[in-house]
Specification:
CATH topology: minor pseudopilin epsh fold
Order of helices and strands: HHHHHEEEHHH
Strand content: 5-15%
Distance between the termini: 25 Å
CATH architecture: 3-Layer(bab) Sandwich
CATH class: Alpha Beta
Shape: globular
Number of domains: 1
Number of strands: 3
Strand order of the largest sheet: 2-1-3
Radius of gyration: 17 Å
Amino acid sequence: MEYERIILPYNSLEPVIDDKTLNLHYNGHYKNYTDKLNMLLKENNYDYRYSPEELAININIFTFKNNSDLSFNLGGYLNHSLYFDHLTNNKVLVPKGLAKKINKCFGSFDDFKKEFIDMALELKESGWTYLVLDKNNKLRIINLPNWDSPYFYEFIPIMSIDMWEHAYYIKYNLDRKKYLENIFNIIDFNKVYRNLLNAKR
């Protein structure tokens, strides 16, 4: 079975993300990476034995002719799937279990938010900022360029924010900090916590 885009559970994320950006991002960029990923897999007679996450973890066992293209499109697919999955147009409080883990690793939620935003602003190129779980069961904030996936580096992504210009430029232009501060208001932290619990398993 082909890999599919997640179904958006919302029609709009205004005013944080304008509808034009949301449409171009979901129906343009995300669709493009999903379609190209499936095309490459079919060209190489892939049988879809793995979930997309398992495919990323095991990508080095494959001998696809276009391995760099596969990594590029798989990373784009995974990153967008995570990103769109934990955005919401409903106000969501941080669950106690997640807050406890964040407080343990970062001191407080406000400290975590500041560190995440500061890390994202350090990106000098297109890329993503992630909250990940490392092999020691510790939460970390990392940047990766382009479409790299944390799975390629033995991290499990819990939360991601797209720092490519197509994610924010129409509304925010060069004000990346404002984009980051605002997007924290539309993250469904229940889903972030779900991702954390699943990662621990």
